[in-house]
Amino acid sequence: MSDAIESVGIALSVALVLGIPFGFFAFLRYLRYKETIALAERGLLRPARAKRNRDTLRWGIVITTMGLGLTCGLYPLGFSMDPVLASRAPLGFGPWMLIGLLPFFFGVSLLIIHYVNKREDLRYDAEEPDPIPPHKVNGE
Question: At a CB cut-off of 8 Å and minimum separation 6, what does 81 contact?
Fold first, then answer.
C-alpha cells in the first residue's frame, strides 16, 4: 500500500514540476491572444515585434558558458571514476565529457549565427515600420 502512495506522490510531483511552467506559458499566450482580439475590435494592428539577434547572442553566451563549466567540472570526474579508462581516452576526454561538450558547441554555433546575421539587423534598422495603419490614415 505504501508503495502505491509513494508512486502516486512521485507522479504528482513530476506532473506539478512540468505542469506549472507549461500552465504559466499557456496563460501568457492566452493573454496575448485576448490583447490581439481587443486591438482587432478597435481596428488597430499589433505593432510588429522587432526580431533582433540579441536573443541569439544572449542564449549563445549562456549555453557556451554552461557547457564550458560542465566540461571543466566533468574533466576530473573520469579520473576519479575509472583511471584506466581515462588514461586510454585521448587527452582524458572520455564519453562523460559529452555532457559538457554538446552544450558548449551548441552555444558556439549560436554565437556564430549571431555574428553571421548581424548584417540583417543593420538592414532591418533602416526600415522603420509605419506607426499608423493604412486604413486609419483618412480618419475613418
Answer: 96
